[in-house]
């Protein structure tokens, strides 16, 4: 009767060795983390270009970045993932075909990273842009006055100086990145959420696996929170009091 | 070396045809079929799970090269993709809870909520034949979810491939329910059996696969691995 | 010899912001070791002039010659000018060290890191060399103990002294000061002026914009009174302060005192 | 990157104020028109007429999900926020824990946990099955609604916590000094003031909530995303339905932003 | 009659913050129409005393009687006191209108809404009545034109006058002012003091904490000098300012002037 309740306590299903599904879950978890890290880094790179493009770029660059960030932030991630996942790779392969190259084998991991990275990029752009704007203008002017080249100013002054302003936003984005990986389940990529469903489907122990996955996600977010706070404290060491 | 092709499975479990086991391996009748066909056709097959919902776009955008996913050969699908010859064919059944007595007919299903998997022939069939009478045709992304909701009492009946239903009824969760009968045939919708999905321009591959299916039927390996799963002839008439 | 002795030479400098002409032909020459104080009312164009010297603002017309090297400029499409050679501008900027009103220390670096940043990354000094030089300078401005502190934790006067050390670390041909004490509390002004006064004694070329008339009189050997974008009057301090010719300068001096 | 990058960050031209007729804008618009033309003429749109009714119903369901979950979620958010700011320690702790747990796990997982996990447990109790609630509990939307509401409450709870804490203490003290009781103070001063402060954030969060609604399609609620999925499966088209879907969400987002702008502008804030 | 004439009577007020005893037994009585100015050094407990009167701070000991009604207090478990009857406290607060140093206008309401808020929601006036009363008062403090403006868009002086109108709208038995001008720019102080001066002439009971000695002398009929939590000296303004007895008051007066 209370089969699911009984299953709740059946932790044997979570064992690492078959017939336990622990290994599958952990593999999915690892895939989630890989995608989260990858897409986050990609998003940051896009964000740096986007933010500098929006702030210092020419009129055309500014408009193009504006279109990118507006569109990406207005469309649900789920829809973007489907669009980019199918259309993106399809389009890329067609383009390569036109150019006379063979079709590129884009595996699920890479596709997932690229798709989520493009989404993250739009948000990173906004976070970094706000942070750069928060740097007192004089700091950049001082760098110019000492003969630094534009690229060096970006590398030595702008990016490190904006960090304390950007970190809260970037921390949130990381949390979003870890959770958005779950959306790749809908394109059949076996990350933690889909692995959970496969395990649950095979064993019918839905509660057990969903709760186990929830716990894994929570651990990740808790651990991330601790690390983010550490980084934030370090980055703020040059600031007197809270910003 | 052998030509490499990517065999697309639905990533969601569909026992006894394709499902993941606890060690992370894909197992089931269709996995063995794919292996046998690939071996016969000298193809290097790579199993590539994709979402059932996007399996046709995955094929057309070359993420996979063939679909081995219990996909019935229908007119509608043939407009978009191509199929090999059929490799099995089974009747379509309807199951419901044991304490709920009804037949697999439009009258029997009057007022009932019928669960089907999306973009299957069952969805089309149920919509056409039961759509007016039934309380609701509820669509699920995976067969597994439909079964689960039947057990949870959120639908009254599930229409699907009789074999897949049989596997569910035999499982622990399926103890709630029994087989209510097979639906009346409708070739136009239910099609001519299940084939391997292919892109339209893949004529050479299609020839190879057809030859391989014929060969494993002839040399008995088809029957060998089928026996492990079924006590009847799944190839059908 | 006559060439190099002329440290900074500016001829006919004009600067427009849109329709507003802020500088209307300003010429100035400073010999090696000169200390020139620029005074004038608010909005007279002092800061703009100083910022033009190291091209933080692009002049609209005029030439700037630093130690015999004239900065190449070319017309941009829209009636203004732009540097012809970006590398040249960067090189010349590295020779003219500017000290800002708001200090503009880099907040993400300690005092020492602030001081070695440009020597290492612009002049290409080795880190060890830069640190050695920086420590000497920090000792000189009395900030050796604070070298590993972040600027936010220093008082305004300490920050400005750090900024001066940062400027000195470039071993510049000339130093430019834009109201270096006006963002400081009155009690802290003295310590910064003392440091600048010491530098003046060392025969360092300096151009400073200041509101501290007494200080200007003591420290500078040449005073420039800017009014409405032109040099209204200039000369040695005793003449400018003691015997002002123009009505405007008279009024200015009496209003400040 | 030209010398432009050297420019101090401050003078950032307001894009909206620039003319739409700048040459590159015209080029962009032409490109856009060309894309639009290609999209319309080279893609298949004949299905739109056939699915029109269902699409509109789907949009209706999406909006219903959005507004009901946001409205109810907001009430909970206010409670969570005030509990964290003014509650006793155990309530603070509970509210904080709730927010952390919900914000730390994916919504998709929460949705499935509620629907497949909790829902299947309900089914095992004959008491529940025979109760008047069962007709609701056997449907999917209550679970979708619950998951969306909980998620909104948790995220907004954080926002409201900040907003409540940010209301100047003096204004609350003034309310007390004029004889207002704690409930009146809360209702007339603290809450409206906090909501006012939180409005810009709420705007962004509501857009995020709109973008989260399609997840309910994975538990058989046929919102606009569900309808588009069906179109995809019926027609075997991929890009056309998704493009239309993206357009629909862009329009809905735009409308939300406009509505919030209106409310934000009602109480001018000095910059 | 003697009863009601005694508007505010405070006896032996003590207030501790943790171990710190800020008020060490302060007694004060104000008759109807009295204008009492409390002066004293920073940290002497003036604000705390004022805030105790309308129970924004809970006294640790002592009694507070407003127009013959003594506020019921009971011991809380931890050595302090707490109001025995919350409704009574609210009612008494609504009769003692407080004007804060930082105005504390409700930022999400226009000036008019600020003024009618408490009359409608505390006193239970109808909206129409409250608006009529508010408009009269706003005209009086010279803010009628600004009634539909949000406080953020007013100058400090205007905000404080709005706050005074808000207080007057309660038609209070007495008004309490805590340094009503110290958050204002010097130019704006005058307009607020003028309004308060007018109120004083109308025979309104007022207790005000202020640093404006000249104003206190002109407006108050009784001066209280608080020092270190006790009343060091009190009396009519001419006596307190003209002929201070205690050393401390002498020092305080000379330091302020
Ligand atoms: N970036 C700019 N854009 C437009 N106008 C400017 C800009 N910078 C300065 N101005 C204008 O140029 C004029 C001169 O400014 P400048 O800062 O050089 O004056 P100043 O003599 O330094 O005055 P102060 O003593 O107040 O610092 C002023 O009218 C100012 O408004
Ligand atoms: N909430 C509190 N908690 C602890 N100590 C407090 C609190 N409020 C006031 N104090 C202390 O009580 C003492 C008296 O404060 P109070 O504000 O009454 O002084 P004041 O006479 O109004 O001074 P000022 O003229 O600076 O406003 C001070 O030492 C202050 O630090
Ligand atoms: Mg200036
Ligand atoms: Mg005080």
UniProtKB/TrEMBL annotation, chain A:
> What UniProt keywords are attached to this protein's entry?
Cell inner membrane, Cell membrane, Membrane, Transmembrane, Transmembrane helix, Transport
What Gene Ontology terms describe where this protein resides (cellular component)? ATP-binding cassette (ABC) transporter complex
Give membrane topology per the record: Multi-pass membrane protein
Q: Which residue ranges does the record assign to the ABC transmembrane type-1 domain?
A: 29-228
Keyword Transmembrane annotated: yes
Taxonomy, superkingdom = Bacteria
Please tell me where this protein is predominantly located.
membrane
Residue intervals passing through the bilayer: 20-52, 64-86, 106-123, 157-177, 206-231
Q: Where in the cell is it found?
A: Cell inner membrane; Cell membrane
Molecular function in Gene Ontology: transmembrane transporter activity
Keyword RNA-binding set for record = no
Database matches in CDD domains: TM_PBP2
**Any Pfam family hit:** BPD_transp_1
What does the record list as coiled-coil region(s)? none
What family is this protein classified in? Belongs to the binding-protein-dependent transport system permease family. HisMQ subfamily.
Q: What is this protein called?
A: ABC transporter permease
Query: Organism, per UniProt?
Result: Rhizobium setariae
From TrEMBL, chains C, E:
What GO MF terms are annotated?
ABC-type amino acid transporter activity; ATP binding; ATP hydrolysis activity
Task: Name the UniProt key words of this record, in alphabetical order.
Answer: ATP-binding, Cell membrane, Membrane, Nucleotide-binding, Transport
Q: How does it sit in the membrane?
A: Peripheral membrane protein
Do you know which PROSITE patterns this protein is assigned to?
ABC_TRANSPORTER_1, ABC_TRANSPORTER_2
> What family name appears in the similarity comment?
Belongs to the ABC transporter superfamily.
Q: What PANTHER family does UniProt report for this protein, alphabetically?
A: AMINO ACID IMPORT ATP-BINDING PROTEIN, L-CYSTINE IMPORT ATP-BINDING PROTEIN TCYN
Q: What is the protein name stated in its UniProt record?
A: ABC transporter ATP-binding protein
Automatic annotation (TrEMBL), chain D:
Question: What is the annotated localization of this protein?
Answer: Cell inner membrane; Cell membrane
Which Gene3D superfamilies does the record match to this protein? Answer: MetI-like
Q: What is its main location?
A: membrane
Q: Which SUPFAM superfamilies match?
A: MetI-like
- Which chain regions cross the lipid bilayer? 26-43, 63-87, 93-115, 242-263
Name the UniProt key words of this record, in alphabetical order: Cell inner membrane, Cell membrane, Membrane, Transmembrane, Transmembrane helix, Transport
Give the domain of life.
Answer: Bacteria
**Sorted alphabetically, which CDD domains does this protein's record hold?**
TM_PBP2
Its membrane topology is listed as:
Multi-pass membrane protein
Which Gene Ontology biological process is one annotated for this entry? amino acid transport
Range of residues in the leader sequence: none
Family membership noted in the UniProt record: Belongs to the binding-protein-dependent transport system permease family. HisMQ subfamily.
Name of the featured protein: ABC transporter permease subunit
Species annotation: Rhizobium setariae
């Amino acid at each position: 009767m209370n089969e699911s309740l009984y299953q709740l306590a059946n932790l044997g299903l979570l064992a690492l060795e078959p017939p336990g599904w622990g290994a599958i879950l952990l593999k999915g978890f690892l895939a989630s983390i890989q995608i989260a890290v990858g897409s986050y880094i990609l998003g940051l790179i896009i964000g740096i270009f986007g933010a500098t493009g929006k702030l210092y770029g020419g009129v055309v660059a500014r408009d193009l970045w504006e279109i990118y960030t507006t569109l990406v932030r207005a469309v649900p991630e789920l829809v973007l993932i489907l669009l980019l996942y199918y259309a993106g790779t399809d389009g890329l392969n067609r383009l390569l075909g036109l150019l006379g190259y063979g079709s590129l084998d884009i595996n699920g991991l890479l596709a997932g990273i690229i798709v989520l990275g493009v989404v993250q990029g739009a948000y990173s752009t906004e976070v970094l842009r706000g942070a750069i704007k928060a740097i007192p203008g004089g700091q950049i002017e001082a760098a110019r006055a000492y003969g630094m080249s534009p690229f060096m100013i970006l590398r030595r002054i702008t990016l490190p100086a904006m960090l304390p302003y950007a970190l809260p936003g970037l921390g949130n984005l990381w949390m979003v990145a870890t959770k958005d990986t779950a959306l790749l389940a809908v394109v059949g990529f076996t990350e933690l959420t889909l692995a959970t469903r496969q395990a649950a489907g095979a064993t019918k122990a839905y509660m057990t696996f969903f709760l186990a996955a929830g716990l894994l996600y929570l651990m990740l977010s808790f651990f991330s929170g601790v690390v983010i706070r550490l980084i934030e404290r370090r980055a703020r060491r040059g600031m007197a009091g809270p910003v | 070396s052998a030509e490499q092709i990517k065999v697309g499975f639905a990533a969601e479990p569909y026992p006894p045809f394709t499902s993941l086991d606890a060690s992370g391996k894909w197992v089931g009748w269709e996995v063995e079929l794919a292996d046998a066909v690939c071996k016969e056709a000298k193809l290097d097959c790579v199993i590539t799970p994709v979402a059932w919902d996007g399996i046709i776009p995955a094929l057309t955008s070359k993420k996979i090269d063939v679909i081995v996913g219990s996909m019935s050969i229908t007119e509608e699908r043939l407009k978009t993709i191509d199929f090999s010859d059929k490799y099995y064919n089974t009747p379509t059944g309807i199951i419901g809870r044991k304490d709920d007595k009804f037949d697999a007919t439009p009258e029997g299903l009057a007022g009932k909520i019928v669960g089907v998997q999306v973009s299957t022939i069952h969805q089309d069939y149920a919509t056409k034949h039961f759509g007016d009478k039934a309380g609701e045709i509820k669509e699920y992304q995976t067969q597994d979810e439909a079964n689960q909701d039947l057990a949870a009492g959120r639908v009254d009946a599930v229409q699907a491939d009789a074999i897949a239903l049989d596997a569910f009824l035999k499982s622990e969760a399926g103890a709630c329910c029994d087989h209510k009968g097979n639906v009346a045939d409708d070739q136009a919708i239910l099609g001519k059996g299940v084939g391997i999905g292919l892109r339209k321009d893949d004529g050479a591959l299609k020839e190879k696969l057809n030859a391989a299916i014929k060969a494993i039927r002839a040399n008995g390996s088809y029957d060998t691995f089928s026996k492990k799963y079924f006590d009847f002839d799944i190839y059908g008439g | 010899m006559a060439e190099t002795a002329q440290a900074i030479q500016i001829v006919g400098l004009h600067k427009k912001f849109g329709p507003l002409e802020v500088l209307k032909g300003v010429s100035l020459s400073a010999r090696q070791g000169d200390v020139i104080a620029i005074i004038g009312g608010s909005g007279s164009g002092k800061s703009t002039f100083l910022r033009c010297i190291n091209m933080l603002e692009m002049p609209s017309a005029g030439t700037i010659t630093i130690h015999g090297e004239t900065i190449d400029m070319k017309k941009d499409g829209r009636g203004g000018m732009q540097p012809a050679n970006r590398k040249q501008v960067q090189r010349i900027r590295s020779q003219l060290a500017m000290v800002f009103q708001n200090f503009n220390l880099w907040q993400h670096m300690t005092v020492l890191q602030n001081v070695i940043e440009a020597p290492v990354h612009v002049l290409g000094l080795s880190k060890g060399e830069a640190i050695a030089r920086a420590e000497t300078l920090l000792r000189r401005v009395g900030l050796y103990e604070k070298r590993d502190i972040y600027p936010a934790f220093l008082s305004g006067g300490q920050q400005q002294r750090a900024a001066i050390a940062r400027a000195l670390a470039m071993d510049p041909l000339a130093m430019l000061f834009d109201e270096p004490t006006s963002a400081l509390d009155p009690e802290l002004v003295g310590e910064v002026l003392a440091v600048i006064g010491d530098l003046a004694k060392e025969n360092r070329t300096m151009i400073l914009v200041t509101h501290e008339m007494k200080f200007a009189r003591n420290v500078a050997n040449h005073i420039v009174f800017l009014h409405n974008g032109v040099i209204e009057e200039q000369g040695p301090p005793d003449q400018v302060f003691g015997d002002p010719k123009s009505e405007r300068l008279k009024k200015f001096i009496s209003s400040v005192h | 990157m030209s010398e432009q990058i050297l420019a101090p960050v401050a003078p950032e031209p307001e894009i909206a104020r620039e003319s739409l007729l700048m040459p590159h804008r015209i080029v962009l618009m032409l490109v856009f028109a060309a894309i639009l033309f290609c999209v319309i003429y080279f893609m298949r749109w004949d299905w739109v007429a056939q699915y029109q009714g269902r699409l509109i119903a789907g949009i209706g369901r999406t909006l219903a999900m959005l507004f009901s979950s946001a409205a109810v979620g907001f009430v909970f958010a206010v409670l969570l926020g005030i509990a964290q700011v003014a509650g006793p320690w155990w309530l603070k702790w509970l509210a904080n824990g709730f927010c952390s747990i919900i914000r730390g796990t994916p919504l998709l997982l929460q949705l499935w946990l509620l629907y497949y996990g909790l829902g299947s447990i309900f089914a095992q109790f004959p008491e529940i099955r025979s109760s008047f609630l069962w007709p609701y509990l056997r449907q999917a939307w209550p679970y979708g609604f619950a998951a969306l509401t909980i998620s909104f409450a948790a995220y907004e709870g954080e926002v409201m916590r900040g907003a409540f804490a940010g209301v100047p203490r003096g204004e609350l003290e003034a309310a007390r000094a004029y004889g207002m009781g704690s409930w009146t103070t809360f209702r007339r001063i603290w809450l409206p003031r906090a909501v006012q402060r939180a409005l810009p954030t709420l705007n962004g969060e509501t857009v995020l909530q709109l973008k989260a609604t399609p997840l309910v399609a994975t538990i058989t609620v046929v919102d606009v995303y569900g309808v588009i999925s069906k179109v995809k499966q019926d027609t075997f088209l991929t890009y056309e339905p998704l493009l239309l879907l993206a357009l629909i969400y862009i329009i809905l987002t735009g409308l939300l932003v406009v509505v919030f702008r209106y409310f934000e502008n009602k109480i001018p804030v000095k910059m």
